Amino acid sequence: MNAPVTGPRGNAAAAPKVPQDAALLEVSGLRVHFPFSRGSLLKPEHGVVRAVDGVSFRLREGETLGLVGESGCGKSTTARGIINLVKPTAGSVKLAGREMVGLREARMRPLRRQIQMVFQDPFASLNPRMTVGKIIGEPLAIHRLAAGRERKLEILRLMELVGLNPRFLNRYPHEFSGGQRQRIGIARALAVNPKVILCDEPVSALDVSIQAQVINLMMDLQQKLGVAYLFIAHDLGVVRHIAHRVGVMYLGRIVELAPARQLYNDPKHPYTQALLSAVPVPDPSAQEHRQRIILRGAVPTPDREYPGCAFAARCPIAEPRCQQVVPVLADKPHAAACLVNDPDAS
Amino acid sequence: MSPDDPQQSAYGPPVPQRGRLEDVLAEAQAIKGVSLWQDAWKRLRRNRTAMVSLGFLILLSLSAILTPLLPLQSPLDKDLQNRRFQPPTAASFQMGARPGLKFKDNSLVAQLQAFEKKTAALRAEAAAAPPAEQAERYEAIEERIRIEHPFNQLWNELGPISWWMTRMRVRVFGDYAIPSLAGTDELGRDLLARLFWGARVSLLVGLVATLVSLLIGVAYGAIAGYYGGAVDAVMMRIVDLLYSVPFIFVVLFLMAVLQEDTTRLWLEGWGIDQLTIFYMVIGAIYWLTMSRVVRGQVMSLRAEQFVEAARTVGASQMRIVFRHLIPNVLGVVIVYLTLTIPAVMLFEAFLSFLGLGVAPPDVSWGMLMQDGVKALSSVKTFWWMVAFPGLALAATLFALNFFGDGLRDALDPRMKNRA
Amino acid sequence: MNQPVLNVENLQVSFRTDDGLVRAVRGVSFDIQAGETVGLVGESGSGKSVTNLAIMGLVPKPPGVVEGGHAWYGEQDLLAMSHAQLGRIRGHKIAMIFQDPMTALNPLMTIGQQLTEVTRRHLGINQKEANRQAIEMLDLVGISGAAKRLRSYPHEFSGGMRQRVMIAMALSCEPDILIADEPTTAPDVTIQAQILDLLRDLQQRRGTSIIMITHDLGVVANICHRVMVMYAGRIVEKADAVPLFQEPRHPYSEGLLASIPRWDQDDSELLQAIPGQPPDLAHLHPGCSFQPRCPYAEARCREEDPGLLPIADAEQRLAACWFDIRQRQGQWQTVGGEENVE
After folding, report:
1. How far is the C-alpha of C239 from the C-alpha of A304, rounded, in Å?
2. Is C338's CB within 8 Å of B8's CB?
């Protein structure tokens, strides 16, 4: 891992010096619940959608933690909860030791220089009425990091950093391709020189050949700047490539967390195993020899409560105790929230 | 950059040197992009109907603004002896020719000259008088101008700019006035002149009242849409409530109350004349739909990723509203504006038609139509009294509607996703 | 070689836009035999979806214009048919399933109504018989309690099940050809796998030919017998699936395969990426359309477009390249993404 890198503005002094192995971002017991009501006037139904239901992990400086899962598992909501785009219902999010949950916006603002986000949709994540220069320059203006000539220089530097031709400073988003727009989004996130960037499916909306470019770019930037990523994706291949550690989410919880290689070579949670058996491999001969693990039952929805392990109903190796005790993700390098496969889960 | 350029490394970036920064900025300016507004304008230009309508509207606005400069007859001078209900004619006309005006030589120019000579003489006298009396004398002269100036018999309450334009007109055109190409009304007044002067009022009402409704509606709708939740619920229920009120009655009531002498004088004491009240009343009605439209737009925009991105970057709520939300709402607002103006104009015409609008001697198209319909009910058909105001109003409304349609097509949000 | 079920010859489709004439499909030819699955692979702008729409007569006529070509279905040319004639074939002999099941199903009609609408129109059977067949189809695609589900509305189903319903609708009249336009772009991997299994299964049982349109090479490896790789409106490589993956012969195919991050292989170095972007179809340069991004390109490539050329030492393989890339030096981009083509 790289030592903390001071950016060109040397503002690493703004944050307390973090020791090498301490966590830069510490999420603990994060819950995001959305209350809802449906049903008729006479028979009202109230319920809670448990989008994120107890997520904990640590992110260290300069590392990439991948978060994978299928749609509805809560990975996007986790990122939005961390950065306070949605209010967490419970839990703690500590950035360099400072608690972020429950902060008012005014207190939150200086912290936003440490943690930024890249969004999924390259079309929708840029204001169509602002030029690229203004979009990238906005964070600089808000946090008063540079003004006038300095700011222009900085914008140009950022554009070059992400591989955009700086001559296109005055162009509008709709004049760029998807991949280029994503680069603009990355440049905007980098403008404040953050330590952590949350990436919400940043390459999912891009063509395959462009995905590779942007992934390379992000890995390169990590090398250069020492920034840490929380990389959310549903594409297992992309995540393996870019992440040091990977967490698998199911129904609002992390069910397995391990270094990338270990997760893919030796998955411990049955859901991970089923997932890996289902992902198609671009190799016809390998494809023929795979054994699919078929999951029974329907995909559960986060608006209901499930006793014990949420996966038990579909699990091929479930035991009776699985529906009684809620498995816990232990705090060790390779952990699975499975009573059967991981002895530390209870 | 052509594909032949050697692949440059985009990293190990040199921070641009002094000279280089200027170069890059200059180039950036040269190849600057086409904003969505410019894009929309290009599209609008291709829409012929919209362009013709725009041309018509510009022409109309210009002629309304420049009306005092045009060699038109007086819109309020009555000629009950000779010129009642005259059909459109090309017979020549001279300003000041009516004997009842008692202008020197039956000419406006001559009367004006005489008046100004007299005033100049009075001024000279005042200058020669002892200083104590001067203020009083000058005041008396001003008073005289206010009351006895020949312009006052031909035009009503000209503001300073209009006054200056009328003087220009007299200097350029002398006594010449365009003949009554649109005929005259029951009091012998020239309809053409009334059409032009009426246009000023009708257009002004349309614009100002719409702007009032815009200001109220955009602010209200943006707040409701942005805050959402309970705030939005309450605000929109109020709008729903107000919607259910039958506006005709409210307006009738309001105008009736405000036209009562005591109230009117009191308001005029504050400098609020009837026309202003009129604007505000109409504006206060039309803001409702505008607020709904804006609220809907703001709500859908609020959930867009670029607004989330702005929040992530640390933008304050003010910044989000003004830099991100409003510019993206403007398109809809503008289109809605251009479609509200005709509605307002029609409403004003309707009110004037009922006799609740502009007060004489001010004239508006609605009022002209009222006169025209009254005239229709007699034995003879004085068709020109309805036809011309009707045509003018219809043409304007059509133009505004076509232009608004063209604008809406040009600003279509599908252009947002052009890859 | 048997008579192909569908034979597309030199299809050309363009669109009139504000930016000029966009030539989306520029001379595409391929055929498909009974019982085989052919993959049309490409990224956005490659023309794969438009090809498919043109075959079905679904290209929006302004601004789109089918400039030339034929699509032979048996003796008939689909492109020359009238609206009424096409109507008899669509849904009946040639069926299509779409990417987004939510928008492909009418939210105001029950599943039963939508299923039976198709069969009653094309097969002329009565409601009772149509219902019976609909239940059979739903069973076939793995929806339990089919009889009751007939009365459900689309929003009562999950995404994966809606996909299955769409497949049931498509197959209800036993078509010869099923065109699947990115049916597995739903992000749920497990459902994706189930859908592919289903399609393969149905093909084996009924001998349906499938045209699979996708950008996902994993899907192609899973289900396709033959593959056509498309780029900038043309087919740049035709091959059987296994040889294509083992040894791609067109630089674009090679680059595409090299740029996919593999989760089953441990490679922590940088991905090999294809630099630059796909060309602007409204302003195409002469010569090979892939040339600006190709590491093997030479002067000749800029001047002359190779067209699909047969590969000397392989049967049934064609690639649109002047060279044998196995023997050429060239490297894909491994540094962080560069933007050099503007």
Report:
1. 49
2. yes
What tokens does B197 get? 């002067």
With an 8 Å Cβ cutoff, are C340 and B7 in contact? yes
Tokens of C82: 């009238």
Please tell me which chains touch C, using 3 or more CB pairs under 8 Å as the contact test.
Answer: A, B
**What is the rounded distance in angstroms from the CA atom of residue C114 to the CA atom of residue C7?**
30
- Taken in order of first residue, the domains within chain B and their CATH numbers are 92-177 (no CATH), 191-415 (1.10.3720.10)
When pLDDT is cut at 50, 70 and 90, the band that residue C122 belongs to is confident
Residues in chain B: 419
Q: Is A245 on the interface with C (CB under 8 A)?
A: no
Where do we find the tokens 């429950």? A102
Using a CB-CB distance cutoff of 8 angstroms, which residues of chain A are in contact with residue B1?
165
Nearest to C213 by CA among C30, C26, C5: C30
Residues of chain B predicted below pLDDT 50:
1-16, 415-419
Cα angle vertex C268, ends C267, C273, to 5°?
80
Q: Are A95 and A73 in contact (CB under 8 A)?
A: no
Q: What is the ipTM of this complex?
A: 0.83
Contacts of C3 (CB under 8 A, 6+ apart): none
Tokens of C32: 């498909």
Contacts of residue A298 in chain C, CB cutoff 8 Å? 158
Q: How close does chain C come to A307, measured CA to CA in Å?
A: 22
Query: Which residues of chain B does C339 touch, with a Cβ-Cβ cutoff of 8 Å?
Result: 10
pLDDT score recorded for residue B17: 52
Q: A258: closest CA among A274, A239, A286, A235?
A: A239
Residue appearing with tokens 């198209």: B365
- Report the side by side order of strands in the sheet with A98-99: A44-60, A23-39, A90-95, A98-99
Taking the C-alpha atoms of residue B263 and residue B252, their distance in angstroms, rounded to an integer, is 15
3-class DSSP state of C232: coil
What confidence score (pLDDT) does residue C186 get? 63
CA distance A294 to chain B (A): 36
List of residues 6+ apart from C70 with CB closer than 8 A:
C7, C8, C9, C10, C11, C77, C79, C80
Q: What is the pLDDT of residue A7?
A: 36
| A75 C-beta neighbours (distance < 10 Å), count | 28
Q: Taking CB atoms and an 8 Å limit, are B10 and A160 in contact across chains?
A: yes
Those of residues 3-62 in B touching chain C at CB distance below 8 A are: 3, 5, 7-11, 43
C-alpha span between B107 and B296 (Å, rounded): 61
Q: What gap in Å lies between CA C135 and CA C138, rounded to an integer?
A: 5
- pLDDT tens string A247-295: 999 989 999 999 998 998 899 999 999 888 888 888 877 777 777 777 7
User: Residue C85 in 3-state DSSP?
Assistant: helix
Interface check C342 vs B, CB under 8 A: yes
Q: Could you count the other beta carbons within 10 Å of the beta carbon of residue B244?
A: 6
Residues 6+ apart with CB under 8 A from A219: A242, C270, C336
Written as one string, the DSSP assignment of B31-90 is T----HHHHHHHHHHT-HHHHHHHHHHHHHHHHHHTGGGS----SS---TTT-TTPPS--
Cβ of C338 and B9 within 8 Å?
yes
**A 252-291: CB under 8 A from C:** 261, 264, 274-276, 278-287
* CB-CB under 8 Å, C260 with A219: no
Pick from A85, A131, A133: CB nearest B308: A85
Residue appearing with tokens 């391709």 = A177
- How many CA atoms, within 13 angstroms, populate the side-chain half-sphere of residue B392? 31
Q: Which of the 8 DSSP states describes residue B324?
A: I
Give domain limits for chain C. Answer: 109-172
